Amino acid sequence: MDTVPQIEVTELLTRLNQGEKLHMIDVREDEEVIHGMIPGAVHIPMNEIPERITEVTTAPEVILICRSGYRSERVCEYLQHLGVEGAVNMSGGMLAWNSISGPTQLPS
């Protein structure tokens, strides 16, 4: 299996601050995202990815986010297995994002 491309939270924050429109999917559970998500991220719980695959594969790059980076990396591997290119894991997940005081918003 290919290695999963990674993005560091500092790089993601820089890209967002530069105004890049990024396709980000937060795969955490409902009870996790109520505490905040990265602004602009879409919430699709990990177990819903297979049935909502068209929402995942609409951009050349999709950044997957979870609490620690483990589940989102599994989703990236799943997408690679399906032949989807452009899946990128956010290293360290929301724990790393919060450690650099990245902005969060409550889910809509």
From TrEMBL:
Molecular function (Gene Ontology), one example: transferase activity
Pfam families the record matches: Rhodanese
Keyword entries, A-Z: Transferase
Residues forming coiled coils: none
Protein name: Rhodanese-related sulfurtransferase
Annotated ranges, domain Rhodanese: 18-106
